[in-house]
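I would love for you to help me understand the pair of lines that follows before we discuss the fold together.
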Amino acid sequence: MMRKYFGTDGVRGKANSGAMTAEMVLKIGMAAGNLYRRGSHRHRVVIGKDTRLSGYMIEQALTAGLLASGMDVFLLGPVPAPAVAMLTRSMRADLGVMISASHNPYFDNGIKIFGPDGYKLSDGQEQEIERMLDDPSHIRVANSDEIGRAKRIEDAGARYIEFAKRTFPRDSNLDGLRIVIDTANGASYKTAPPALWELGAEIIQIGNEPNGMNINEKCGSTAPEFMCERVKETRADIGIALDGDADRVIISDERGQVIDGDQVMALVTKSMHERGLLRGGGLVATVMSNLGLERYLTSRGLSLFRTKVGDRYVVEHMRAHGFNVGGEQSGHIVLSDFSTTGDGLLAALQVLAEVVRAGRSVSEVCKMFQPVPQVLKNVKFKSGQPLDDSKVRSAIADATQRLGNSGRLVIRPSGTEPLIRVMAEGDDAKMVNAIVDELCGVIALAAA
């Protein structure tokens, strides 16, 4: 079944337009509340948000819809998405909601929904919400005496900070480490810096002055250059860049060189394997992870299991097959011993723990493998299915044959934007670049 509202990571779109109008968000709240009304107990939902201007509007509309469905609402304010997942379980809520468009610009916003177990909804649950949105007769409003109440939780950030600190080894600390922390002017600006400071680090904060419209603007995990420059300027030991809702992380070493999610996953997997803590015989990643990661794991007798793009699909595979490490090259790192979803701060703390254990520089500790040349480009389209074009299919088949066994080709529509993503990788960098350019040209013609 084709989904109309939900993408790879919840509902997302331009604020005050489409699925992100106050009216539509109210209906989403009512539908989600209906889906999770089970039994006669007082139902509760926790709502967190990032720092986008539209968050005020969406928070109020979503709250109204949930109250109308009979849910009591607990408003957390600006907190990371993984904090919402954690607090959903901690506060015994029936539902958790994060208002965020993650790494997107401020004018977008979105809604991510977590079930009572702290995990994101399955495809089937999202389809049930879509069914109610398309046919409101399936939505039941609460009786007058069953309407929910709303209240603010003032210490949500502090609860998350304490939770995050407990994932760091008890017999260790960050004394003597200078850390640049870029919170993308987003949801973690009040949680990540104090958590690192309380563990003993010297903190240099950037991207920590949100104004409602500067979230992810030339900062954060999607623009790590800002962080890398500050690392070099301040002679810091490490840089940590989170995205707008802090569920992904990109690291910089002391030389200002980027360490992506694949390297972080390799490091954590190796460490856990050596300490007898790894489950599943490897890790779970997506089709976008570098072939170099797969080769590295194979050399150590471990396996890489790939899913389609989206940390939700990574988590589903992890749960179904008993893995405790997974993630995405983009920096979603899922450590199921600690969390039910990607958590940028927790992943960064595991990297820091390895740096402290080794007593060596970040560049020495975190360079796990040599990536295979990989090129990713996007092609915009307005409507239709350009990948169904016969010329596009023929070009893809030809490119696949040229790469053979020494590379990979991944072409897919974005789940959050009107883009076709074209990725190729292989040992021959020149060939990889040529293939991506050629395919982008063919797809652009089909999308015109």
